[in-house]
Write a structure and sequence with these properties.
Layout (H helix, E strand, L loop, with lengths): L6 E4 L4 H12 L4 E4 L14 H6 L3 E4 L13 H22 L3 E6 L22 H16 L4 E5 L2 E2 L6 H11 L3 E4 L3 E2 L2 E2 H18 L6 E4 L6 E2 H14 L7 E4 L13 E2 L4 H7 L6 H15 L1
Parallel strand pairs: 1-2, 1-3, 3-4, 4-5, 5-10, 6-9, 7-12, 8-13
Antiparallel strand pairs: 8-11
Helix pairs in contact: 1-6, 3-4, 5-7, 7-9
């Protein structure tokens, strides 16, 4: 007899998937992560036998095509994974009567709002990546209306490639950096995302989902710009004997990229807190242990 949540993770090598594996281990929550070899969202039609043998109580889709700039030239590949693949995964969950927790992004918004986004705000992605993730949200909800969709932003962690790791590497190689200061958002630790998703899975296992299906914002509390984020990283790193260099604030116009980014990526997490009692920590609080871990690896 199953006595607690058992999590089937789609994705194994991404930041959120690796954070889920770590946090689930610490919390003694059984977890099975399927990589692309076992469950490639670009081609998947159903879950492999190993997934059913595991007897999960919930599925978390942490797999995605995430190459934001590359997606501008690889629209078909991005939509195959983020849209069609996510929809087929939701169909597989529906056939089994399993809850699905789907990870999405702030890139579904155009960034034109002057305040933090709430879940009911209109979506208007600026590029292919955001459009593919929005199409995935819609496909998931059509296949499984009771799905939970979590939009997050500016994800970093001790794992994989991310802004914090890039800053620490560049800080060790250069005397100064120029970083965009007119894009604002809520930096989010993948470890915090993992803790929240596991807590939600435990909640719906113990109490059922009820009327809480839908879209939620899952991002760090507080806000900053990319420049402010970089300066905070170097301040923390310098205090621990790591790289600490000056960071010059520049406008987006001086750092062009193939894909346009939202100027405002702030996400209001009030709905999540009301429904599940979860509010992620202030981004500065979560940044410190990640910087410490990354410096300890060097």
């Amino acid at each position: 007899m199953i006595e607690g949540p058992r999590l089937l993770i789609i994705g194994r090598n991404g930041q959120v998937a690796r954070a889920l594996a770590e946090r689930a281990g610490e919390r003694r929550v059984p977890l099975l992560a399927l990589g692309r070899e076992e469950c490639d969202l670009a081609t998947v039609t159903d879950l492999p036998d190993a997934a059913d043998d595991f007897e999960p109580t919930a599925i978390i889709n942490a797999a995605a095509y995430t190459a934001v700039d590359k997606a501008e030239d690889e629209r078909e590949a991005a939509f195959a994974v983020n849209a069609a693949g996510s929809g087929r995964l939701a169909e597989a969950a529906a056939r089994r009567g399993l809850p699905l927790m789907h990870v999405s992004t702030d890139y579904v918004y155009d960034g034109g709002k002057s305040a933090p986004y709430v879940e009911s705000d209109p979506t208007a992605p600026l590029g292919v990546y955001g459009a593919s993730k929005l199409a995935g949200e819609k496909a998931v909800r059509v296949a499984l209306p009771d799905a939970l969709i979590f939009r997050t932003a500016w994800v970093y962690s001790p794992f994989g490639g991310n802004f914090v790791k890039t800053m620490l590497r560049l800080g060790a190689e250069r005397d100064s950096l120029r970083v965009v200061d007119d894009q604002i958002g809520s930096p989010t630790s993948a470890l915090d995302i993992a803790d929240a998703l596991i807590s939600v899975a435990a909640d719906i296992y113990e109490n059922d989902l009820g009327n809480r299906a839908g879209i939620y914002h899952l991002a760090g509390s507080g806000e900053t710009s990319w420049c402010g984020f970089a300066r905070a990283i170097f301040e923390l790193a310098g205090a621990r004997g790591g790289p600490s260099i000056p960071v010059e604030a520049i406008p987006t116009s001086e750092y062009p990229t193939p894909a346009k980014r939202p100027a405002n990526s702030r996400l209001d997490g009030s709905k999540l807190e009301k429904a599940f009692g979860i509010r992620l920590p202030d981004w500065r609080e979560s940044l410190e242990p990640v910087v410490a871990r990354l410096l300890a690896k060097e």
